[in-house]
């Protein structure tokens, strides 16, 4: 059995943003914030659950649905 006593650290960033009804605007904001976190050393960046779209009603989210496995949100 081999023991590794080296300590490694993972730099994590949590993004806080105000999402809007505009998918494009939200993706641009998230991209800018993720890039800034990465430039400051983040290796893992966590986004809010509805970062991509905060619709005015539930059907707004349905209208932004992407085909499985394709699209900028996935």
Report on the structure:
The chain has helices at 23-39, 58-63; strands at residues 12-14, 44-46. Helices cover 31% and strands 8% of the residues. It has one domain (12-63). It is of the alpha+beta class. The mean pLDDT is 87. It has a two-stranded parallel ribbon.
Short description:
With 74 residues, the protein is of the alpha+beta class.
Shape: elongated
Mean pLDDT: 87
- The radius of gyration is 17 Å
Q: Give the tally of structural domains.
A: 1
Q: Number of DSSP helices? A: 2
The biggest sheet, with number of strands, parallel, antiparallel or mixed sense and barrel status, is: 2 strands, parallel
The residue ranges in which pLDDT falls below 50 over 5 or more consecutive positions are: none
Number of strands: 2
Share in β-strands: 5-15%
Structural class: alpha+beta
| Order of helical and strand elements | EHEH
How far do the termini sit from each other?
A: 40 Å
**Helix percentage:** 25-40%
Largest beta sheet: strand ordering: 1-2
Provide the descriptors you would attach to this structure in a database record.
74 residues, single chain, alpha+beta, 8% strand, 2 strands, two-stranded parallel ribbon
């Amino acid at each position: 059995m081999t023991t590794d006593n080296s300590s490694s650290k993972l730099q994590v960033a949590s993004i806080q943003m105000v999402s809007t009804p505009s998918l494009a605007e939200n993706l641009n904001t998230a991209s800018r914030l993720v890039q800034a976190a990465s430039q400051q050393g983040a290796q893992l960046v966590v986004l809010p659950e509805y970062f991509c779209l905060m619709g005015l009603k539930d059907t707004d989210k349905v209208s932004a649905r992407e085909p499985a496995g394709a699209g900028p949100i996935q």
